[in-house]
């Protein structure tokens, strides 16, 4: 029997990214019937969509509740809807920290705290650059980098945080790590729990850079994973799988994940992000990227 795979996009981004343009053919070559449908298209019968793989849904952050209601209604969604619920809110970093993972020092501002502008001001760093962003965001939306000692930038950062809080969004205030500018972020891509490839990403934010609705892209180049990269990635992967298995009540087998780390310049690392929703997998950065992902999807389809 031919198995069906539906690659899930959105009405906002109805096409696969250029990075994944050859994925449908690779899946077809593996004997799979392939369709591409938008998660927010009410005409789709998801009960007959086969294995559904999220790929380009950057608008989920605009109304996370609606997105998650849809995700929970899809019978064979990968990654699992419970994983998506956890991973679409960056409070998951607190869970990873509780499992021993070092995260970028973060101050969390919550809407229910009813903070004044002065109270927000006092929670910003006193020196260096820092980042303000929403805990629920995608594609670089609602993120800004500011210099703490510049009064105009500090004022802009306060307004940024207050706007997000006023919309009912949790806000993250993080120190900007200079190591990101010096050596970039390292992304390790996993399929079905096995590492596929590694890339280095250039810095996304420049000083006094702020986004609203724009989708930002980073320049990524393939790199040979060092022993240290592998060690860091495995520590994070193990922490993620352990948390999911212990707390979400599901098989911890994750179809795809991308682990972003940055050096702490002392031989260790910080976890920047773990993406299991629709983040770029940088398939074109390596000759085997598309085939590795297609193999992983086919394996799950024929389970």
Strand content: 15-25%
Give the SSE string: EHEEHEHHEHEEHEHEEEEHEEH
| Terminal Cα span | 13 Å
Helix content: 25-40%
Low-confidence stretches: none
* Category by helix and strand content: alpha+beta
Main sheet overview: 5 strands, antiparallel
Secondary structure tally: strands:
14
Neighbour order of strands in the largest sheet: 5-8-6-7-11
Cα-atom Rg, whole angstroms? 19 Å
Number of helices: 9
Shape: globular
The residue-averaged pLDDT reads 89
Can you characterise this structure?
The chain contains nine helices and 14 strands. The chain has helices spanning 23-28, 64-73, 81-87, 92-98, 117-122, 151-166, 178-183, 227-247, 289-301, and strands spanning 3-9, 32-38, 51-54, 77-78, 106-109, 129-134, 143-147, 171-175, 185-191, 194-201, 209-210, 220-222, 256-263, 269-275. By secondary structure, it is α+β, with helices and mostly antiparallel strands. The strands form three sheets. It has a five-stranded antiparallel sheet with strand order 5-8-6-7-11, covered by helices on one side. Strands 12-10-9-13-14 form a five-stranded antiparallel sheet. The longest helix has 21 residues, at 227-247. The relative contact order is 0.16. Helix content is 30%, strand content 25%.
